[in-house]
Predict the 3D structure of the following.
Amino acid sequence: GQNIDQPTEMTATEGAIVQINCTYQTSGFNGLFWYQQHAGEAPTFLSYNVLDGLEEKGRFSSFLSRSKGYSYLLLKELQMKDSASYLCAVFFTGGGNKLTFGTGTQLKVEL
Amino acid sequence: DAGVTQSPTHLIKTRGQQVTLRCSPKSGHDTVSWYQQALGQGPQFIFQYYEEEERQRGNFPDRFSGHQFPNYSSELNVNALLLGDSALYLCASSLTRNEQFFGPGTRLTVL
């Protein structure tokens, strides 16, 4: 199968840095997305990685290693509003424009 | 520029009934994908429409069917509803293999 694994829950402190990891099957990999989803709302786009390396966008950065089947989302200067589910999703070859999602990591930011 | 819109927002049905959910893609997008998201899980791909045809299908039974109209809007139909069909149904639109923009979703409850 095309399993995508990420931790179920994480807790971090306001102002801190948190790293959310995602591992996936490398066969057929064709790009990786990170989405943020607040409870009861639609997922919103955070980042897209198709080549190895770090993509930085404000407080959020995303890293990809294609050979290791590994990505992480780094959130800096955490704010209470960052409490949400973070979804890792992958395009696999032959899957067209279909995204395969992980189960999501529920991040709780505390004071 | 309107984003992806979905209707209705919420829906309550009973087992055995049929339901139709609707989606209008973001302006300029020609591809519509439907996902089912159970509570606490990541979205699961149902199917994708492009040029009024179903192009990809996930692991869902034939009770799930769809349609795409010439204006690129789409419908998801579910027949013979089961309790397990209760979920958030998300529509996402895109242009080729690019970022998928998600609509707000339709919360379906089957009693």
Remarks:
- The CA atoms of residues 49 and 84 of chain B lie 24 Å apart.
